[in-house]
Specification:
It is built from 19 helices and 21 strands. With 487 residues, the protein is an alpha/beta fold. A 7-stranded mixed β-sheet has the order 17-18-16-15-19-20-21, with helices on both faces. A 6-stranded mixed β-sheet has the order 3-2-1-6-14-13. Strands 4-5 form a two-stranded antiparallel ribbon. The longest helix is centred in the last third of the chain and has 27 residues.
């Protein structure tokens, strides 16, 4: 029986899972769960990285009785830590929702032609991307960059703390907008244009690389043997995609969590006029596959709305919110989930009402009406992303595989099937952890290929199927597009 430890960091929580593999099935046991709370200090939003390192150590301690062979970490994308020449962390990594990147997108286009920028990187332009975080430092804190010797993206920063090896794993590197998508290396042209020194960027390693073992210091502190540290698909989206239970070659996927990533899997990047016009991103994943996808604000809208209602004294469960949405009138009003006012934390229900008022729609007043607006707007946004991807690849994607925490919400899966007009296969819920585990098993040779891993996932997980039904969504989709395009 092979056993490995997967540590999966989400934007609001993390967990450690020990997995056992018997050659055909993966079984998982969660041994540690913890919150991941940003800290605002002096007007800057930071990740509490020292606390997160403590939680990694707790995970390792709790994994000792299982005698695991390896450990691997996946996290969210784009954020990073800076090390000095002695390998010391210069400051806590800054959260992608921090305001420091405001205006940096436009500033970058003064330094490098927008079309050329996309031609090199193939990344969707989003102000949170690593390139624009670094540009803000070039403009506002050049002293910090002068002291920095290496930039490490979040999963690789944690791996560095475990084993002392400084590197960038392929999938997480491809989220940065500093990566040459065609040549699979850092783009010297982009780095030079933005004023970022080339030596700041670490060497790039393939997904599934063994990058070391737990350091002697850590082994002594935790009383552990030196297990292998494996750099799996460090970006949680690509880790989850590795666990997608698809059998066919052409399919759409929806990684559904705080963010929704809607895409399709290809053998090579798609970088052309259509993908540029539609602002579609290319990311690299397991076995060098390319994910052509759109980043969409996802369950954040529900999570942050719930936090607002709790602040107001109403502690609704997610199940209650789902039921209130079911009981509310369909197609009353829509929002663009990606509108900039919905990205920061705060009073999302109020912003939804203001958006609907500004776009001359009925204003949702009740909790159920706001939830129905969010659900339907997300489902219709997924349809828009699906159609844009089909335009880019020149073929229809007949099935959507939906995985991640959002699959616990049956209403969202059902509405997605209705909006997209195709079958939705929902599961696994723990896709990110399963992908992390699976790539560790591939690295050790216990699983031979991505296709075999997906067969193991199908053997191990219960999947749900949703078909389109009920109301005609065509008119609703036309109204949604009108609202989004004229907002």
């Amino acid at each position: 029986m092979k056993r490995v430890l997967a540590i999966d960091f989400g934007a609001s929580s993390g967990r450690a899972i020990v997995a056992s593999f018997d050659g055909e099935h993966i079984s998982m046991e969660e041994i540690h769960r913890f919150s991941n709370d940003p800290v605002i200090l002096g007007g800057t939003m930071y990740w509490d990285v020292l606390r997160l390192v403590h939680e990694i150590k707790q995970s390792l301690i709790k994994a000792k009785p299982y005698d695991v062979d390896s450990v691997a970490i996946d996290t969210w994308g784009v954020d990073f830590g800076l090390l000095d020449k002695d390998g010391r962390l210069l400051e806590n990594p800054v959260h992608y929702r921090d305001s420091r990147t405001e205006g940096m997108l436009e500033e970058s286009f003064r330094l490098i032609d927008k079309g050329r920028f996309y031609e090199i990187t193939g990344n969707q332009f989003m102000e949170i991307n690593t390139a624009f975080q670094l540009l803000s430092l070039v403009k506002e804190r050049p002293d910090l960059l002068k002291r920095a010797d290496k930039l490490l993206l979040m999963p690789n920063l944690f791996e560095y703390f475990l084993c002392g090896d400084a590197h960038a794993e392929l999938s997480i590197a491809s989220t940065t907008q500093l990566f040459d998508a065609e040549n699979k290396c850092w783009s010297e042209e982009v780095l030079d244009a933005l004023g970022i020194k080339r030596t700041l960027m670490p060497r790039i390693v393939d997904s599934g690389s063994v990058v070391g073992t737990l350091s002697d210091t850590l082994c002594e502190e935790l009383d552990m043997k030196p297990i292998k540290v494996i750099s799996v698909c460090g970006h949680d989206t690509q880790s989850a995609l590795a666990a997608c239970p698809a059998e066919e070659k052409d399919f759409a996927f929806l990684s559904c969590g705080t963010w929704s990533l809607f895409g399709t899997e290809l053998d090579s990047p798609v970088i052309d006029e259509n993908s540029f016009r539609l602002n579609v991103t290319n990311e690299l994943g397991c076995e060098g596959k390319t994910s052509l996808l759109k980043n969409i604000i996802g369950l954040w809208l529900i999570q942050e709305s719930r936090r607002q209602w709790i602040r107001e004294g109403s502690e609704y469960s997610f199940m209650q919110l789902e039921q209130m949405a079911k009981d509310s009138e369909p197609f009353k009003c829509f929002i663009d989930p990606n509108a900039p006012e919905f990205t920061p934390a705060g009073n999302i229900p109020k912003r939804i009402r203001e958006y609907c008022k500004r776009t001359n729609q009925p204003i949702p007043e009740t909790v159920g009406e706001i939830m129905r607006c969010i659900y339907e707007s997300l489902a219709l946004c997924y349809r828009q992303a699906k159609e844009e991807l089909e335009t880019c690849v020149g073929k229809r994607l007949e099935r959507v595989y939906m995985f991640g925490g959002g699959t616990k919400d049956k209403l969202l899966s059902s509405l997605t099937a209705c909006a997209c007009g195709c079958e939705v296969i929902s599961g696994p819920t723990e896709a990110t952890a399963l992908g992390n585990i699976g790539v560790q098993l591939m690295a050790s040779g216990d699983v031979e290929s991505l296709s075999q891993l997906r067969q193991v996932i199908r053997n191990s997980e219960r999947l749900n199927h949703f078909e389109p039904h009920g109301d005609d969504w065509s008119q609703a989709y036309d109204r949604f597009l009108e609202v989004v395009n004229n907002a």
